Amino acid sequence: MRRADRRNSNDDNAIQHPQAKRAEPIPYNELRQILINVRSQRDEAKDQVVEKERQLEESQTLYREQGEKLQSTIVLFRETQEQASSYLTLYTEEKGKSSELEVKYNEAHQESQNYLALYKQVEQELKFERRSKAGIKGWETRRKRENERLKEEIGQMAIVLRESLTKKEQAIQSLEDVASRMDRIQRLVDSVDGEVANNPVGMLQKFQRIWTAVREILAE
Fold it and tell me: How many other CB atoms sit within 10 Å of the CB of residue 173?
């Protein structure tokens, strides 16, 4: 009698070569839905391709625009660089002119200091010599000589100022003011010449007015 768990060759063959089951036919509705899905995916893919092409075209357009802007920026940078170079050259020239004006100003300032020292010296001498008529007469002689020196100092100071501030509108006005004040000083000096020799107080007062006008010039 054959055992139930013993297999024969047919059983082994069936195990090694199983026969595929016959697939059931796909329902029409399901097949139709699959076709709709495929067409939808195809249309979506086409739309994506069109969108990608549009994005690519926009990117190319943007790239060209940015390239043009970059070229314009480079040109503008070069122009700005050239302009900055010209400004630097102009600044160097103006700095040199400023140094020259500073030197002339220092010269004018030194002249004014010399004039101030000279005035103080004359004023100090006046304090000692006005006590006697003889001293006053001697002082008048020296005063006239010192007046000439003062006029020369003022003239030299005006020349230095005129040279240092030429081509400047402010310089013209300043020189006119200086000239006006110099005329006033001259009138005061001339009035001192007409003062009576025995009236040292009046001469001192006029000399003080001269000094006030001179200080105004120095303040200018």
Answer: 11
Alpha-carbon distance of 140 to 144, in angstroms, equals 6
* Token pair for 75: 């040109």
The encoded tokens of residue 4 equal 């139930």
Residue 153 near residue 114 (C-beta atoms within 8 A) = yes
Radius of gyration, CA atoms only, the chain: 55
Under 8 Å CB-to-CB from 135, ≥6 apart: which residues?
A: 128, 129
Alpha-carbon distance 175 to 169, whole Å? 10
pTM over 0.90: no
Q: Largest alpha-carbon pair distance within the chain?
A: 182
Q: Token pair 């302009």 is at which residue? A: 83
Task: Report whether 191 contacts 206 (CB < 8 A).
Answer: yes
- Tell me the torsion sign for CA atoms 78, 81, 87, 92: negative
Interval 90-140: pLDDT, tens: 888 888 887 888 888 888 878 878 877 887 887 777 776 666 566 556 667
Are 128 and 135 in contact by the 8 Å Cβ rule? The answer is yes
